[in-house]
Design goal:
Two copies of one chain form a homodimer. Chain A is α/β, with parallel strands linked by helices. Chain A is built from nine helices and 15 strands. Chain A has two domains: 153 residues, Medium-chain alcohol dehydrogenases, catalytic domain (Quinone Oxidoreductase, Chain A, domain 1, Alpha-Beta Complex); 151 residues, Rossmann fold. In chain A, strand 11, helix 6 and strand 12 form a beta-alpha-beta unit. Chains A, B: InterPro entries: ADH-like_C, ADH_N_2, ER, GroES-like_sf, MDR_fam, NAD(P)-bd_dom_sf.
Chain lengths: 334, 334
């Protein structure tokens, strides 16, 4: 049996290029004591992975050059040297970007097999880290409460679409989203139930936001940074909160871009901007599953996936996320 | 008796010019029922007043054109038509920029006469709104706690010098300040007990801060904005907090200046930037006086005043605060 895995060969400068990576063949690993051998079925691709491709110290260690990259994955256990996990079980773990992985049992979480009507890939998205990111950032970092008006950027993305829907389900007075195509904007309003949405490519963000939120916003969930953040600060109501989940607009800059010009507005509004990482909020996972799980099961909370097939398309899928090609969570099916 | 008072004639564009203002003579007002007539002894001049000279809606209403401006003042009651306040009492109120004021008793707070060794002017500064600004911003907005390292800009100013000293007295691991002259820098270290200080005009703020705080900072108290804020974000430790009290560097800009280029660092540090206004924190006043009063009385907390004499120099004193001419709280003595 042959294992294929994606290596990082050189650290991208600006936009990642195909020659920075290689799909390499290697032997299927042999699980050690306490490990399980997993045949991956779905691999996650996420914007944060761009950060780990750089050498700079970030919240996660940089990927090592000449070695296989990492990321979320779900797969089937085909061999077990650990108690409590049997061949045939499905597990969630962090050894993506490859076909086979030997995983310490303590780093593998058993998940449903998809038999209950929840597809396996959902554990990489709506019921996984993506969903918890939306939930924790909205409720804990941004202190969202019933009656707040909310703006979320990257709203058609995996995190953004959940942020807006969870806010609606929890009593937001108004939910506004921005996205990068008219198709996505329609999706936000027609399928996800946003009160308003706009295509940020159609005009200045600040102006479009003012029209969509004439009474201002109480919470901004930032996936984008740049113009979006400046516009949100400009529309922030008194006591407004900004949760910074990501700043996809700046990740590939080789020169740092100027920040918002209106930060002094934080004084008069008593506004707050705060960054967060989902890893600090795993304690919310039980509460999250308890509250959001039924919404997913009942269809009250909708989600989409963009599925790309084949390990050989893993890199292209990742680049697609950076470009915004995906609608909802992007996964690679093996 | 003639009253002299400063009027705003036109809204300054950029740096305020003398012709935007006029010192006008008017009759001494007659106190109505429930009012007291106060002969002002000290007038406060503060950077925030620049905001009220503009038409834009801010946290305080704009000054009206052709009318007398406002600001903190302490003076002696020379006539009373209110119960509980007698001629000879000294009161703190908000009708500065003039020699005489008729003040509703409910808007006047009785203060010591200076007989206990605390000069009357202190009620405009170290024991007044200035001191509470430092205290509330540091403890409540920035959640300062024992062991934190602190950076404060405008550190030789009225608020900044108190921020640094209160942090030291409450167990900061390291207190760093920036100021605009070598003389002020010496004052910070030699008199106020800062662990390190630098002159921001002597080199890039980010570099000087990194040298002064090689282990980073947990709290930044921002009086300045601009380069200082970007430098602070760059040196922010995990879980760091920024309290935005003022952004004096941007108040006179006619074009908005670009903001910090490194806001994405808030994600990895889980950093927080939050604006505040002292008016939201008057509930802390008793706790503040109880804790800081004894430090002032014992000399553990030092302060300086820059005193300018004469109502005719009130405008120049205000411009001096914007230029940074003052060391400590700037007041006008009548």
């Amino acid at each position: 049996m042959i294992n294929r895995e994606w290596h990082l060969l050189s650290r991208p400068v600006g936009w990642p290029k195909p020659e920075d990576f290689a799909l390499v063949e290697s032997p299927v690993p042999t699980p050690g004591e306490g490990q399980v051998l997993v045949r991956n079925k779905y691999l996650s691709v996420d914007p944060y992975m761009r950060g780990r491709m750089s050498a700079a110290k970030s919240y996660a260690a940089p990927f090592e050059l000449g070695k296989v990259m990492q990321g979320g994955a779900v797969g089937e256990v085909i061999e077990s040297k650990a108690e409590g996990i049997e061949p045939g079980d499905h597990v969630l773990h962090f050894f993506g970007w490859r076909e086979y992985a030997a995983v310490d049992a303590k780093n593998a979480v058993k998940v449903g097999t998809g038999a209950e009507g929840v597809p396996l890939s959902a554990y990489l998205g709506v019921l996984g880290m993506t969903g918890l990111t939306a939930y924790a950032g909205l409720l804990r970092t941004a202190s969202f409460k019933e009656g707040d008006s909310l703006f979320v950027s990257g709203a058609a993305g995996a995190v953004g679409s959940q942020v807006g829907q969870i806010a609606k389900l929890k009593g937001a007075s108004r939910v506004i989203g921005s996205a990068g195509s008219d198709e996505k904007v329609r999706l936000l309003v027609d399928e996800y139930g946003f009160d308003a949405a706009f295509n940020y490519k159609n005009g200045p963000v600040a102006e479009q936001l003012r029209q969509a939120a004439p009474d201002g916003i109480d919470v901004y969930f930032d996936n984008v940074g740049g113009d979006h953040l400046e516009a949100a600060i400009g529309s922030l109501n008194q006591g407004g909160r900004v949760a910074v989940c990501g700043m996809i607009s700046v990740y590939n800059n080789t020169e740092p871009a100027p920040g918002p010009r209106n930060l002094a507005r934080l004084i008069q509004t008593r506004g707050r901007i705060e960054g967060f990482l989902v890893g600090d909020h795993y304690d919310l996972q039980p509460q999250f599953v308890q509250e959001v799980g039924p919404w997913v099961a009942s269809g009250a909370l909708k989600y989409r996936e963009t599925v790309v097939e084949g390990i050989e398309n893993n890199l292209e899928a990742f680049l697609g996320v950076l470009r915004g090609d995906n609608i909802g969570k992007m996964v690679v099916k093996l």
